[in-house]
Design a protein that fits this description.
Length: about 525
């Protein structure tokens, strides 16, 4: 399938323009278009807001079910880690099958650049039309720019964690001469994301009203910026990045850990005090139950649900594509840790492959007539517990006070103790020793806590393993991935997944990642 960036941009442009094809005679030459054109759009707050919503809409493409167990996108960030495993033929599960023709990776790439194209188009139109388009609500001009920058930065973050060297596109491409950008180098994708987020944090509102809940805020930008600084600092061994990350995290205000760990995966407690960015899933309309389409033809609204059927084997014909917890993850829990009950089933230590219940245990019951686990329970993309653990990591890596970092870990562990399903406080996990002086040991405590706290969410575990391998802290070639696939073989180049083959063929400036 050809999905080069030029085609993505052309498709996006066609969605915005209407071309009337009429003969040039006196009776037709002055007819008005039957719908919006680019010239008549982007002219007021309502249209600008619609364009912003179009960027958010593309986020849904990473969470939808596409009528095939081998095409949904969550596998790209969930299945490569040592937390989840499957016997299905997902190349990300055993690495050596990865090629430039791996369908899920190619679609992932396409969706990222479609999101970036929508962001760049809006940023251009704000620059061109901002002086007259925001007459009634002038504050929206800054807010909309901040949202576009945030969402673009999130796409850069995904691209770096997946391909590493994917092109950096910062402007709307309208000229064929600009349609073949080269590979980015080193951490350029992260560098630009940090720049975007630092600007976004100055533009976004501290909060939105109830009608706009779920839209990103200053806190969202500070949190994602700090996270990306920690990632860049890890691979670059840059102390300044960790210091900057701590400053970003300290700028977050008005958020807190929810009282119960399970509140973060309960559909009745979305957009809560711990949430910093989540995808707003909703129920499919009765005439929009085909989530398998690959284009925006169905996407005036699009597929708006989130799919968790990879954990429940729904629909039943997905067969061995069901994702189950690895023995490694199961063994990582301290016996009695209440977070187990919100993440895994009681019999997960046995042979039952259907054993991951996060987002399902307290999730909206299935409502789709095919019973495919297309849910309205929002995936929490970024939450405060993640931020706190990253802050503890940044403190350790920057040579800060170890007791302060350990105290942050103990906040997370205390909340876990108070989350027991029985309603009584569990003695596990106990507080860690505040007097520990071995920084390397405390850093490992951080990653152990991240594994349990964030298990089976948003690729956290794979992205942590990946950056640590790049930094030379661990060696994934000798790692126990605890996979059901006996043919798993990890090589150094697998930290950079292959770029779409057709992109490389058609672009004179784009080189395939080494090893593919």
């Amino acid at each position: 399938m050809k999905i080069n960036i030029l085609k993505i941009l052309v498709i996006s442009l066609m969605l915005l323009l209407v071309f009337p094809f009429t003969s040039c005679d006196e009776s037709t030459i002055d007819l008005n278009p039957i719908g919006d054109t680019e010239a008549t759009f982007y002219n007021n707050e309502r249209q600008m807001t619609m364009a912003v919503m179009g960027i958010y809409q593309k986020v849904g493409f990473f969470y939808r079910f596409r009528n095939n167990q081998n095409t949904f996108q969550q596998s790209v960030w969930l299945i490569p880690s040592d937390d989840l495993t499957t016997q299905a033929s997902h190349a990300m599960e055993y690495f050596i099958a990865l090629t430039g023709q791996t369908g899920q990776l190619n679609d992932f790439y396409m969706y990222c650049y479609q999101l970036i194209a929508r962001s760049n188009t809006l940023l251009e139109k704000i620059e061109e039309n901002g002086d007259f388009a925001y007459q009634s609500e002038p504050e929206l001009k800054a807010h909309h720019r901040g949202e576009a920058l945030f969402l673009r930065a999130w796409a850069y973050y995904l691209l770096w964690n997946t391909y590493g060297t994917a092109p950096l596109v910062t402007e709307r491409i309208t000229d064929l001469a600009d349609a073949y950008p080269p590979n980015s180098k080193d951490t350029e994708l992260l560098d630009q994301a940090i720049i975007d987020l630092q600007e976004a944090s100055n533009l976004l509102p501290a909060s939105w009203n109830a009608a706009n809940r779920g839209r990103v805020t200053k806190n969202s930008a500070h949190a994602l910026c700090g996270k990306i600084l920690v990632f860049r600092g890890t691979v670059k061994k840059a102390n300044a990045d960790f210091v900057a990350a701590i400053n970003e995290f300290n700028a977050i205000s008005g958020v807190s850990l929810m009282p119960n760990y399970g509140d973060n995966f309960d559909y009745t407690k979305e957009d809560n005090a711990e949430s910093l960015f989540e995808y707003h899933a909703n129920e499919q309309s009765s005439n929009n139950n085909n989530a398998g389409l690959d284009n925006d033809g169905f996407a005036v609204v699009g597929d708006v649900s989130a799919w968790y059927g990879m954990f429940t084997q729904k629909p039943t014909w997905i067969g061995n594509a069901v994702y189950s917890a690895t023995q490694s993850l199961i063994d990582a829990y301290e016996p009695g840790d209440p977070r187990w009950d919100y993440t895994l089933t009681p019999d997960a230590k046995g042979t039952d492959l259907i054993n991951v219940v996060k987002y399902i245990r307290n999730g909206m019951p299935t409502f789709n007539k095919q019973n495919n686990e297309q849910s309205k329970n929002n995936p929490r993309i970024l939450r405060y517990a993640d931020v706190l653990l990253l802050k503890a990591e940044a403190i350790i890596r920057s040579g800060g006070n170890l007791s302060e970092a350990i105290a942050i870990l103990n906040q997370i562990r205390e909340r876990a103790r108070k989350s027991d399903v029985s309603g009584t406080e569990s003695p596990v996990p106990a507080d860690l020793d505040l007097n520990e002086t071995d920084a390397a040991k405390v850093l490992e405590w951080v990653f152990q806590e991240r594994r349990i706290e964030l298990a089976c969410e948003e690729g956290h575990r794979w992205y942590d393993l990946r950056r640590r391998h790049i930094a030379g802290e661990i060696d994934l070639k000798n790692w126990d991935f605890s996979s059901k696939r006996v043919d798993l073989k990890f090589e150094d180049h697998h930290v950079y997944f292959p770029l779409p083959e057709q992109e490389v063929i058609e672009s004179p400036n784009l080189n395939q990642n080494p090893g593919y």
